[in-house]
C-alpha cells in the first residue's frame, strides 16, 4: 500500500474514536510495521499525540457526516467520553454541553467550554458560547480537549472543542447536493462546491432546515452559509479567508413542563409559551482571516483576526420583562508562534502568543402583558467586555520517551455596563476588572511507541457572565461576585494493542472554589459564589477493529460530582448533595459494519444515569437507555456517486427527558417547577446525496 492510499484509509477508518488524530503517516519500504506520527493541533502547541499530557479526542469526517442529520454536535461527539449533551431538540435554547461538570449550570447554550471554528472563537470574552452558526455540513475534523484549557485559551475551565472545516484543495474538485426528510416534518437541503485554480482554492456550503418538532410550539427554520478561500502566496506562506452567515427567522420555545404535565402529555407546550408565541430570531455574520508564515521567522507564525455581528430577539415563555433583544459586535486578533529549539542540549518545542478580543452588546428589554402586548421598555444598556492575554508553553524532551510540559497565561478581563435607561430611577452602570493567571504542568512517558502514560496539574478560571453579574441590591455589577477557580489533577493512559484495539483512559480530580450558583429573590434569579465543588471521575474510550468490516466503539464515564460548603436555592445546607444536571454514569456504544461499495450500517445505544434537577436534590430525574440505527449505500455512475442513507432515533420508543432546566422556578413548590422537556419518541429520517 503506498503512502497516499494509506493516508486515505486512515482518514476513513479512525484508529480509535477518541484517540484518532491521524494527520500524517511515515513509511519506508521494508519496514515490518508502519511508523505513525499522530498529531493534535487544538491545544495550540502542535505535538505528537503520544507526547501530549492531556485527554484529547478527535472525530474525523466520516463520523461527522456519514448517515447523520448534522443538526447538532452531539451526533458527532456522543462517543467521546466525558461529554454530556442536553437540549438537542429545542433550537431556541440550543444545545447544552457539559464536560467534567463544567457547563451544567448554563440555562441555555454552552458555558465554561471554549468553542472555535477555523481559529475563529465562538466563545465570548465573558465565557458564553453560541453554536447555532456551526455548519456541520462543512466540518472536516473536531478535536476535543477534556479538562482545563485556560493556559491556551483563557476563560475555559471545562476544555476546548476545536472544529475545522474542509479546505477546498483537500477534496476532489466538484460538488454535492443533499436532500433529507423525516419525522415531525423535518426537511433539510444542502449544496456544496469546491475547486482549485492555480494557487487559489475555495469551498462553499449552503443549507436550509425546516422542522416542526415533536412538541407544540417547536417549529424551527434555519439557513447557513459557510465559505472558505485560501491562497498560497509563496512557499511557506498562506492566506485564508472564512465567511459564515446564519439566518434563523424562527426557533420556537415550548417551555419547560412540570412532571405532572410531562406525564399527562409530553408533546404539549406550556400555555404561556403558546399564548406569548415564545420564540427567537437570529441573524449573524462572521468574517475571519488567517495568515500562516514559516518564512519570516525560523518557526511557524499564525495570525487570526475576525469580526462577528449578531442581531438577536427573543420572547421568553412568561409575561413580564420577558422580551429581549441585542445587537452584538465581537472582534479581535489572536497570534501564536511555535518553534523548535534546544535547551541545555535537549529538544524544546515552545509556543507563545497574544490574544485581544472585544465584545459589545447593545441590549434592550421590554415588558410584555399576559396577552403578549408590549407594555413598555425596561432596559437599554451597552455591555462590553475586553480580554487581553499573553501565554507561553513548552515541551522539553528529557529523553526519547520522557517529556515534561510547562505553561502559563495571564488574562486581563474588563467588563462594563453603560446604563442608558434611567427612567426607572436607578443607574445600573458599573465595571469590573479581573486579572487572572493560569498554569499547567504535565509529564508524559512512552511505555512503548504506541503506549503512553501522562499526568497533568492545571489551574483554570471561569468568570461570571453579564447575566450573572446582576446585583440583588441594585446598582450596577454585583461587587461580591468573583470568578470561580479550578484545580485539575489528571492521570491518563492511551495506546494501541496489536493492530485492532485502541484505548484511552483518564482519571481526574477537580476542586472548584467560589463556584458560581444561582439563587432567587422573588421571581428574579441572581448568582453568588456559593461554596466549593468536588468532581472525581474515570473516563474510558475503546475502539476495536474486529475486522476490516466490523468495528466496536465504547465510551464510559463514571464520576462523582459533589457540592460542598454552601446553601441550596432555598437557603438550606446543601453540603454533600450531588451537583444537579450531571449523571454520574454515561455509557455509549456503537457497532459499525462496512461493506463494499460504500455500504454501511451502525447500531448505537447509550445509557444516561439518573441525576438531580436542583441543588437541594429534591427531584430525581430517572435514568434511561436510547438506541439508534443508521445505514446507507452508494451507487457509482462513472465520475458521479449517489449516496442513500436512512436512520431511526430512539429505536425502542423510550420515554425520557431530552433537557432538564436546572434550578428553574426555585420560588415555586417543587411539584410546580417547569424542569422538564420531554424527548421525542421513535423518529425516522432518510436522504440522498449526489456527488458530482
TrEMBL record:
GO BP term, pick one: iron ion transport
Membrane-crossing segments per the record: none
Gene Ontology CC entries for this record: cell outer membrane
Domain named TonB-dependent receptor-like beta-barrel: residues: 268-651
Ranges for domain TonB-dependent receptor plug: 49-160
Placement of sequence motif TonB C-terminal box: 675-692
Residues spanning the signal sequence: 1-25
Similarity comment text for this entry: Belongs to the TonB-dependent receptor family.
Protein name from the UniProt record: TonB-dependent receptor
Organism, scientific name: Marinobacter salsuginis
Amino acid at each position: 500500500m503506498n503512502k497516499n492510499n494509506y493516508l486515505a484509509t486512515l482518514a476513513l477508518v479512525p484508529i480509535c474514536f477518541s484517540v484518532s488524530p491521524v494527520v500524517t503517516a511515515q513509511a519506508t519500504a521494508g519496514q515490518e510495521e508502519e511508523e505513525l506520527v499522530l498529531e493534535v493541533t487544538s491545544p495550540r502547541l502542535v505535538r505528537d499525540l503520544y507526547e501530549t499530557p492531556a485527554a484529547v479526542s478527535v472525530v474525523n469526517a466520516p463520523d461527522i457526516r456519514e448517515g447523520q442529520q448534522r443538526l447538532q454536535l452531539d451526533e458527532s461527539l456522543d462517543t467521546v467520553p466525558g461529554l454530556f449533551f442536553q437540549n438537542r431538540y429545542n433550537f431556541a435554547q440550543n444545545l447544552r454541553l457539559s464536560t467534567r461538570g463544567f457547563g451544567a449550570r448554563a440555562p441555555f447554550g454552552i458555558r465554561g467550554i471554549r468553542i472555535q471554528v477555523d481559529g475563529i472563537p465562538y466563545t465570548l470574552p465573558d465565557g458564553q458560547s453560541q453554536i447555532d452558526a456551526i455548519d456541520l455540513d462543512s466540518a472536516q475534523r473536531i478535536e476535543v480537549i477534556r479538562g482545563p484549557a485556560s493556559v491556551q485559551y483563557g476563560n475555559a475551565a471545562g476544555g476546548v472543542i476545536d472544529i475545522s472545516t474542509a479546505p477546498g484543495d483537500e477534496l476532489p474538485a466538484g460538488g454535492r447536493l443533499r436532500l433529507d426528510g423525516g419525522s415531525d416534518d423535518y426537511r433539510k437541503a444542502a449544496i456544496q462546491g469546491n475547486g482549485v485554480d492555480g494557487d487559489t482554492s475555495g469551498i462553499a456550503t449552503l443549507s436550509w432546515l425546516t422542522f416542526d418538532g415533536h412538541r407544540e410550539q417547536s417549529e424551527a427554520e434555519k439557513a447557513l452559509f459557510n465559505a472558505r478561500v485560501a491562497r498560497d502566496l509563496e512557499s511557506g506562506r498562506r492566506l485564508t479567508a472564512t465567511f459564515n452567515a446564519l439566518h434563523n427567522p424562527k426557533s420556537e420555545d415550548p417551555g419547560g413542563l412540570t412532571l405532572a404535565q410531562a406525564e399527562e402529555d409530553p408533546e404539549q407546550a406550556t400555555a404561556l409559551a403558546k399564548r406569548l408565541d415564545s420564540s427567537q430570531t437570529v441573524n449573524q455574520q462572521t468574517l475571519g482571516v488567517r495568515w500562516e508564515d514559516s518564512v519570516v521567522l525560523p518557526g511557524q507564525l499564525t495570525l487570526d483576526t475576525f469580526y462577528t455581528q449578531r442581531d438577536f430577539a427573543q420572547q421568553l415563555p412568561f409575561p413580564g420583562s420577558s422580551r429581549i433583544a441585542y445587537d452584538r459586535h465581537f472582534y479581535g486578533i489572536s497570534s501564536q508562534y511555535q518553534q523548535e529549539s534546544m535547551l541545555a542540549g535537549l529538544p524544546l518545542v515552545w509556543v507563545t502568543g497574544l490574544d485581544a478580543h472585544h465584545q459589545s452588546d447593545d441590549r434592550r428589554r421590554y415588558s410584555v402583558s399576559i396577552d403578549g402586548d408590549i407594555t413598555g421598555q425596561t432596559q437599554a444598556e451597552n455591555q462590553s467586555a475586553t480580554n487581553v492575554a499573553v501565554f507561553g508553553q513548552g515541551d522539553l524532551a528529557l529523553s526519547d520517551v520522557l517529556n515534561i510540559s510547562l505553561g502559563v497565561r495571564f488574562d486581563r478581563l474588563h467588563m462594563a455596563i453603560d446604563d442608558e435607561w434611567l427612567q426607572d430611577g436607578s443607574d445600573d452602570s458599573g465595571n469590573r476588572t479581573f486579572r487572572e493567571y493560569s498554569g499547567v504542568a504535565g509529564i508524559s512517558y512512552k511505555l512503548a511507541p504506541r503506549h503512553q502514560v501522562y499526568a497533568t496539574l492545571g489551574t483554570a478560571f471561569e468568570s461570571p457572565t453579564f447575566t450573572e453579574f446582576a446585583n440583588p441590591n441594585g446598582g450596577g455589577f454585583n461587587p461580591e461576585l468573583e470568578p470561580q477557580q479550578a484545580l485539575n489533577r489528571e492521570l491518563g493512559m492511551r495506546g494501541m494493542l496489536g493492530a485492532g484495539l485502541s484505548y484511552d483512559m483518564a482519571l481526574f480530580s477537580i476542586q472548584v472554589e467560589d463556584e458560581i450558583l444561582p439563587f432567587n429573590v422573588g421571581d428574579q434569579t441572581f448568582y453568588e459564589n456559593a461554596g466549593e465543588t468536588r468532581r472525581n471521575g474515570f473516563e474510558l474510550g475503546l475502539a476495536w477493529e474486529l475486522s476490516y468490516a466490523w468495528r466496536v466503539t465504547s465510551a464510559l464515564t463514571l464520576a462523582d460530582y459533589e457540592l460542598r460548603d454552601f446553601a441550596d436555592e432555598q437557603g438550606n445546607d446543601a453540603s454533600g448533595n450531588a451537583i444537579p444536571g450531571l449523571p454520574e454514569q454515561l455509557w455509549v456504544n456503537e457497532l459499525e459494519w462496512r461493506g463494499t461499495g460504500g455500504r454501511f450500517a451502525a447500531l448505537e445505544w447509550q445509557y444516561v444515569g439518573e441525576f438531580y434537577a436542583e441543588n437541594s436534590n429534591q427531584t430525581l430525574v430517572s435514568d434511561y437507555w436510547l438506541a439508534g440505527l443508521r445505514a446507507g449505500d452508494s451507487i457509482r455512475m462513472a465520475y458521479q456517486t449517489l449516496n442513500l442513507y436512512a436512520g431511526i432515533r430512539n429505536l425502542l420508543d423510550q420515554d425520557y427527558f431530552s433537557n432538564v432546566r436546572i434550578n428553574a422556578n426555585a420560588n415555586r413548590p417543587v411539584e410546580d417547577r417547569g424542569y422538564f422537556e420531554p424527548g421525542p419518541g421513535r423518529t425516522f429520517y432518510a436522504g440522498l446525496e449526489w456527488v458530482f
